[in-house]
Amino acid sequence: MPISQETLESLDEMRSLIEVRLADSLVDAVLAHGELTLTVKRESILEVLRILHDDGRLQFWSIVDICGVDYPEREERFDVVYHLLSPRQNVRIRVKVKTDGVKPVPSVTGLFPGAEWYEREAYDLYGILFTGHPDLRRLLTDYGFDGHPLRKDFPLTGFSEVRYDDEVKRVVYEPVNLRQEFRNFDFLSPWEGTDYVLPNENKGDEKAK
Q1: Which residues of 18-44 are buried (b: 16+ CB within 10 A; e: fewer)?
Q2: DSSP E strand boundaries for 48-129
Q3: 35-66 tens-digit pLDDT
Q4: What is the pTM assigned to this prediction?
Q5: Is residue 159 in some structural domain?
Q6: Which of 43, 78, 195, 201 is 20 to 30 A off residue 151, Cα-Cα?
């Protein structure tokens, strides 16, 4: 859906206001493709979100989500991305901070209680740490899980599988057991495709080539 000129003008006004209010915390403010993206200093994220939340000209009261992005070639490989909604202004904004697997990001659960599970998910899947979080533990993987599945360097294959054992009432790890027969497919297998013979193959049909 095309962005209205009114919305673009509103976002541009917000960018000017934010550049003044967040001068000491702002790294960059970019308005592109109808979206306003702020990059701020990691240690200032709570202060920045509080201003976006409390300022009567902004009123970003709703947190839509928090997610991680992995750029393994960078020294600070992770972006933590916050998407906020202002119901009063009817616009969204994106806020980003950079970090690595060691430097923690201040938790924003005190300002947005709904951020609790978003931060747990970012910790679980990327290994991003958050200080001040009330319950920072894994959310989607097992507590004994090794690694963080959404990191770009996480291995795609392995030799263990995880399942819940109803007899022992806990999650267990076992060697991978390939139960399907005939794992070594031949060329006549439907999994690999069939060597179809065209009806006019011996008559010089161009499709046979």
Answers
A1: beebbeebbeebeeeeeebbbebebeb
A2: 62-70, 78-86, 91-99, 105-106
A3: 899 999 999 999 999 999 999 999 999 999 99
A4: 0.76
A5: no
A6: 43
